[in-house]
Amino acid sequence: MMFGLLRNRQIKEFEPDLVIGTVPALPTSVVTFVAARKLNVPYILDLRDAWPALFRESKQWNAGTGRRSPRETILLRAPFQVLISLTEWSLNFVMSRCSGISTTSSSLERQLKAELSKPTATVRNVFPSVSTSRDRTRERDRGHHLHVLYAGTLGRAQKLENALVAAKLAQDEGVQVSLRFVGEGATWGPLRRTADELAVDLDLQHQQAPDELQESYRWADTALVHLTNWDSLEVAVPSKTYELMANQIHISGVVAGETARLIETLHAGDVVPPEDPRALADLWVALAREPKRLDISDQGKTWVEYQREEVAPAAFLNLVEQVGDRQ
């Protein structure tokens, strides 16, 4: 298919100055690399997540989906591991030969710059997102109730069962935590079952259009940014972090690494370690009993706007110029 496209007359007449391949999807890296070679132009690899480090977590990809399925049992055997190794090798091959790399976190950029010695840039996912006006003075059930929103992927890297256990622990301390999860992913069904088993209040909704999230943003006292404890995720920053900052919604960060540092430095919320439901429960109990902690400043919002309007465009254009100069 790829070579058919390159032989196509319209493609032949198209003379790009640059090819950019965005990962994921993972096959894009190879397809766009070959296209750039065929067209004899520079190639920038745009990494939208902590690849290729995430490949090293492949044996844990289904840890949050409940008991192991027959398909998972098969996939964890040799053929799947061979496929993972081949895909990782392919991505590393492209990374070593591309003209430049764009990442979404400064930690990953520093790591790749040191390993590969080629032009890099951090272009954060600070694209315009849903915004809402919130009644920050609304009455809260002081000390007894907390609304917690999670909007995003209900997947393996999030392992949101941790939040359900935390809600149960907070409930045992006399604080009713009402959870609302909005999204899609491999753990949708298991989360529903676990919530029922623990008897916690979970409103589980399917993915919504950005403008439909406004009601949930107004409902929330705090919003989760939640990742599991994989080493590779310490150099990843979920884009939802920036959206919550832009809307001045208090963040309950269950994260480590760069995301944790951003939340703390910008005073955008509170952070606890991943895979520690007791720490998360203690945070939620404290927030319910000290609701003034939920009112955050506009520091995070101002920073996101600056990144969007000034830093990210300049970083990307600088990368393009560096790549062009080396050609």
Give the count of structural domains: 2
Name the structural class.
alpha/beta
Mean pLDDT: 86
Unreliable runs: none
Q: CATH topology of the largest domain, which one?
A: Rossmann fold
- Classified in CATH, the superfamily of the largest domain is Glycogen Phosphorylase B
Taking the alpha carbons of the first and last residues, their distance comes to 28 Å
Task: Report the strand count.
Answer: 10
Proper CATH architecture of the largest domain = 3-Layer(aba) Sandwich
Class of the largest domain in CATH? Answer: Alpha Beta
N-to-C SSE string, H for helix and E for strand = HHEHEHHEHEEHEHEHEHEHEHH
- Total number of helical segments? 13
Organism: Corynebacterium glaucum
Protein name: Putative glycosyl transferase
GO molecular function, one term: transferase activity
Keywords: Transferase
Walk me through what this model shows:
GO terms for molecular function: transferase activity. It comes from Corynebacterium glaucum. This is Putative glycosyl transferase. Keywords: Transferase. The structure is a single chain. This protein is an alpha/beta fold. The chain has two domains: 2-126 and 307-326, Rossmann fold (3-Layer(aba) Sandwich), CATH 3.40.50; 145-296, Rossmann fold (3-Layer(aba) Sandwich). Helices cover 45% and strands 15% of the residues. The protein is built from 13 helices and ten strands. The protein has helices spanning 2-7, 9-13, 27-39, 70-75, 78-97, 106-116, 161-172, 188-198, 214-219, 240-246, 257-265, 277-289, 299-326; strands spanning 19-23, 43-47, 100-103, 120-122, 145-151, 176-182, 201-205, 222-226, 251-254, 269-272. It has a six-stranded parallel beta sheet, sandwiched between helices. Strands 1-2-3-4 form a four-stranded parallel beta sheet, sandwiched between helices. The longest helix is centred in the C-terminal third of the chain and has 28 residues, at 299-326. The radius of gyration is 22 Å and the shape is elongated. The two termini are 28 Å apart. The mean pLDDT is 86.
